[in-house]
Amino acid sequence: MQRLFDMAATIWRGHITFGLVSIPVRLSKAARSEKISLREVYRPAPQESGQTPPAGTPSRGRKTGRAAPPVEEVQQQEEPAVSRIRLKPVNEASQETVSRADVLKGYEYEKDRYVVLERADLESIAAETDREMEIQEFVHMQEIDPVYLETSYYVIPESSGEKAYALLFTALRETGYVGIAQFAMHRREHVVILHPGSRGILLHTMYYEQEIRKVEEYKANQDLVGKKEVELASMLVESMAGPFEPAKYHDTYREKLEALIAAKIKGKATAPAQAKSVKAPVVDILEALQNSLKNVKKPVAREAEGGSQKRSGAR
Fold first, then answer.
1. DSSP per-residue codes, 136-157
2. Are 113 and 47 in contact (CB under 8 A)?
3. What are the CA-CA distances from residue 119 to residues 105, 116, 130 (Å)?
4. How far is residue 28's CA from residue 102's CA, in Å, rounded to a whole number?
5. Digits of tens for pLDDT over the chain (315 positions)?
6. 160-194 burial, b for 16+ CB within 10 Å, e for fewer?
7. N or C: which terminal CB in the chain sees fewer CB atoms within 10 Å?
């Protein structure tokens, strides 16, 4: 069977900056769910197998022969109402739309050759959703590499289980352990962490060991840095330290998209995107650290009630 996922690909290139220090990096996914890729296939009935595509049926993606209207005519036409697009399953051989009920799952083991998996086949191996999540063991959270964490959920107690829930939450907090449990959800088996949050128990689904990518370039050569550079870098980190306040950070893309939609609805003109200024990389790290410490600014806390701001590092 072919490899289930490709080698890790670069999804972003840029620089990490703190102070005037600029570090060129690239990102690749550390983990992803490992699933066998199944395609949607259509198996014609025996009487259909000899059919050929109807005469004049265009192939997928082929342009029609209809010429575009002149620009003047397009400008004079009233803007048509926008309609939503819905995808329908199309038989690639005949270009005919097929019923969703006739669509099957197939695994492409060779180019354009599929083994068809019947619904009964998939039903027979699917995990039934569990009604019980059994804790297998308790471990210290610091032993778990964050790369294994996938999705987080709130664990909310039913009214009849509030005392037992509070007992587990308190025990986890007092001992510093987290629970490792297994159960099935959405027809897939999961290994999860039960972790005491600020007010209750959090659940984190985990990637399996084979889903973690092994990337050779992911390493730090500490022999490259000197003692003085480490001291200055540590001082810079301490000078920029403050309490974690997630409310300070906003999804600016969503805010801009909401504003853009509102402007479009009202028929207002939108401002063109402004080009981002790019900092020139600093070659001398020691000099960059020294200059950064001279110009360092403490992180600003989120706005308090009344609009005033406070310094997060103030004592």
1. EEEEEGGGS-GGGEEEEEEE--
2. no
3. 8, 10, 21
4. 38
5. 333 444 568 877 777 777 777 777 777 777 666 666 677 777 766 655 554 444 444 444 444 445 555 545 444 555 567 756 677 788 877 788 888 777 778 888 788 788 877 777 766 665 555 678 889 999 999 999 999 999 999 999 998 889 999 999 999 999 999 999 988 887 678 899 999 999 999 999 999 888 888 887 778 888 888 999 899 999 888 888 888 887 887 888 788 888 888 887 787 877 776 766 666 665 688 888 888 888 877 666 655 444 444 444 433
6. eeeeebeebbeebeeeebbbbbebbeeeeebbbbb
7. C
Cβ–Cβ < 8 Å for 194, 135: yes
The neighbour count for residue 283, using CB atoms within 10 Å, is 8
**Secondary structure (DSSP) of 168-219:** HHHHHHHHTEEEEEEEEETTEEEEEEEEE-SSSEEEEEE--GGGB---TT--
